[in-house]
Write a structure and sequence with these properties.
This protein is mostly helical. The chain has one domain. The protein has 4 helices and no strands. The radius of gyration is 14 Å and the shape is elongated. It starts with a helix and ends in a 7-residue tail after the last helix.
Length: about 100
């Protein structure tokens, strides 16, 4: 849920750059999405949540690409690569219910 809210807040921030609360909400929901993803993976594993975990991971990875910072490419690419590694781990999990 937080990954979708992150995207929504990011779109609102893009459409109305004069409103600083949208940027705050985008970062807040990104942080909450990362915390929830990490918690879900560490406590329950993939199991029945495979589709939701894959969707959240894909949205977070796409967000890292969409917010790429030309002034600091190492920071943005590092987040993207970590998230893509997580997606590949989910896809190649032997318990992923295809």
């Amino acid at each position: 849920m937080h990954s979708l809210l992150m995207f929504s807040a990011g779109q609102l921030a893009h459409e109305d750059p004069s409103e600083p609360s949208y940027n705050y909400l985008e970062l807040h929901h990104r942080q909450q999405a990362l915390v929830a993803l990490r918690h879900s993976l560490s406590t329950t594993g993939v199991g029945d949540n495979a589709d939701a975990l894959l969707g959240a991971s894909a949205l977070l990875a796409f967000h890292s690409c969409a917010t790429f910072d030309d002034d600091n490419p190492d920071f943005s690419s590092e987040h993207y690569l970590i998230l893509m590694n997580g997606i590949s781990m989910l896809l190649f999990d032997p318990f992923y219910p295809f």
